[in-house]
Amino acid sequence: MQETKEPEVQNSEPLDLKSDKELLLEEYEKEQKRANNITFRELLKIYLFVLIALLIILPKIYISNHIYYLSKDINSMYHEYTALKEEKVSLLRELENLRYKVNIADEIQEADSFDENQSY
Description:
The protein is mostly helical. It has a domain at 37-119.
């Protein structure tokens, strides 16, 4: 029997190149398996950035809220002021009407007493 040999496939690539490819593939797989954690230095930078942002934003929020509540107080006081001014005008009119009625009543009483004095 004759043994049939399969023709050997010759690689046109040198062995060094193939080992370089395998090495590169192994490094790529290692890199893919490596966990992508952040370092302590990066974490510190993030905390510092957040702290600076809070130091800038929180006073602005506080001042905005304080201005809002002050304007609410001023607005309510202004409404009370205008209501009191209108009440003052109303009371002054009522006082003027009462003074007028008192003056008329006094004149009528004087006229009646004058008529009574003259009739005797």
